[in-house]
Amino acid sequence: MARKSKAPRSDPILATGADQPMSAEQERELRQLAYAAYEPEAYGRNMTRSDAAQRIAMLRAKLKLLDGPPHTL
Q1: Domain of 37?
Q2: Which are the contacts of 62, defined by CB distance < 8 A and separation ≥ 6?
Q3: Mean pLDDT of 64-68
Q4: Could you give the number of structural domains in the chain?
């Protein structure tokens, strides 16, 4: 069963430098989401901010689907 996060987080900020390495906040959230979604391969240390933002969004969506009752799928 998927773990619920402590509090809903805002979307990752991509104010400047989308091709720069992901921020420490993104790295922490991505690692937690990958663990909760049983997808350790979704986490990678050498990701850009934009790649990390896409994976974070994908994992959030997956966990949201897993959180609902089975009859809603």
Answers
A1: 24-72
A2: 37, 39
A3: 83
A4: 1
